[in-house]
Amino acid sequence: MASSKPQRSSFASTSRTHARPSRVIIDENVVTETFNPEKRKLSLKRKTLTSCQSSICGYLSPWPTYASGQTILHNRKPCSDDYWKKTRSWKQSTLGATKPRFLEQLENYLRKELLLLELSTDSAQELRLQPYREIFDFFIEDFKTYKPLLSSIKNAYEVMLAHQREEIRALKPLKAKLVTVNEDCDERILAMRAEERSEISMLKKEKMGLLKLIDKKNEEKISLQSEVTKLRKSLAEEYLRYLTERDARKILIADLNELRYQREDMSLAQSPGIWGEDPVKLTLALKMTRQDLARTQMELNTMKANFGDVVPRRDFEMQEKINKDLQEQLESLRDDYEEVRKEHEILLQLHMVTLKERDQFFTELQEIQRTSTPRPDWTKCEDVIAGGSERWQMLAEGKNSDQLVDVLLEEIGEGLLREKDFFHGLGYEESILPPFLRYDGVVENKKPTKKDVINLLKDAWKERLVEEQKEKFSDFFFNFLENRFGSTDAMAWAYTIFENIKLFRSNDLMRQFYEILMEKKSESVFIKQKETVTQLLKELINVDSQNEGLLTMEQLSTVLKSTFPFKKEDKIQELMEAGGWHANSSNADLLNYRALFLEDEEGQSMPFVYKLWEQYIFEKDEYLQELKQELGLELREEVTLPKLREVLMIIDPSLDKQTLNSYLNQAFQVSVTEVPEESVENEENIVAQLRTVLERLEVIDIRRKGAREQEPAVGS
């Protein structure tokens, strides 16, 4: 049965990547020929096998399965000591089982091929696969039945290996670049560390200098405190000394007065001649005195009889002056009385007219009360609005009936909006719909909270203020939603936000965003208002030299007048009151000016900023009304471009050329470069209805640039 064992007389190896001369290796009747690199062909001299030499009854079947794991196909160098030890142990463990001859030939061939490889080169791992490829080719050639399957397996692995080689070859430049970048980063880190070390050393030196300065100041402070203590002590001593001296002076004055009184008493006691005069002389003197008194009394009576009705000249002149003043006062009172009488007659007439109007209004009121519905009881809404009475009182505070209706509509609309799961697209009508609403179909309602919508609008404004603002605001808004939520959800978010801002009109941020999206207002209005508020805050910070966040009312008034030079005194007063000033406040009261520019969670501005916005709207309407009055035209009449330019320069002489052209551009919807300046005929051809002009100007940011020149007085 020797012929029944499969034997290989010779087999060939496939091509190698390294060049090696052709040679023949003979071992135990096994001939292995290695071919040159240019062309290698598989040549195995097979012996003729009988039908019993198949895989079922041949040499391959009786090979024990426990020995299958003991082959040499492992990931170790064939020339290592560990390899030979394991080979020896494997041979000893398999002495009891006889190997097939074909398997021994393959193992010997593989072992010798592995020994011939130069494993020190870079491509050693790839070369090491070549013997295994050859062995696998032998198996494919030998097992005809499984040749297609084994060939497909081999091809799949070859394709994958080729793919991996390409990826490794592509990653090598990246590895070199990574090393270069790593070196650059290391150099930068070292440079930054050196810079930080130098900066730290400088800061340490500065710190030591400051510590020395602090110690010096502390020593000066201690010395000054000691001097103050000494001065206080000396001051107390001086005060006690002066106090003692004052008391001594008072005692001395009292003693001197006592001595003077004693001296006068002694002088009176030492002059007895005054009381020792002759009584006869005294009697005679008394008699003469009585005669003089009688004569004087007679003369006085005569004078009274003669001049009893005579007034002294001084009194006469005084009375005459008083009389003249009284005459003047009487004339003045008569004139005042005449004026008051006339005013009284006018007031009586007005009173009669007012009485008639009152009766008329009372009649109309009764008619209205009879025909109209009664005034609603708004307290009934407390049980319906979410949040109860507290939230309703907060919502209804300071609002009239019309505003309360808006609040109710917003609350009802918010509930209905949350119940909707989808929105129906409005179509693709370009003349009516903005780009972000052009959609035909059904879009999802994202159902964000009011706070989420406000935060999203704030983010959109921040991004809009950063970019150059070349595209339209509606296009920018849709691009912003695409960048934020992706192109698939952008349309759904556009419809969701549009419905929310259309509903919540009482919110300033949402109302302004809606008006700008629908082109009812220009975004320059909002941007200019933001710039104005920011500039005012900067001016207040500049005045706050201590950076404490506090200013006096007088400082606030000064900053407002300098920032808004064209505002009247009553408008400045309104801003002061919105900022917290009241009638009982003094100019020295401190105000936290930073709190005036804060916003609440819903984006609502403080009363101060809101008052600025109200005044801007009022001043804008006043400016347009002044323009209309100066034109002297009806709303349906047409106005030409030169006429509008002339009137704008009359009511606002400080307008610069660029601003004037922008106003004319908006009013007549012509490009600034198309606004003619030389050709009068072309100017006359550009006309528009006054109503249209005013509506277009109301969209943009239009405001007074300077004071209007006073017209000269008649006859001057």
Automatic annotation (TrEMBL):
Residues 286-350 form a coiled coil. Keywords: Coiled coil. Pfam families: TSNAXIP1_N. InterPro entries: TSNAXIP1_N (IPR032755). Residues 107-216 form the Translin-associated factor X-interacting protein 1 N-terminal domain. The keyword Ligase does not apply. GO terms for cellular component: cytoplasm. This is Translin associated factor X interacting protein 1. It comes from Pipistrellus kuhlii (Kuhl's pipistrelle).
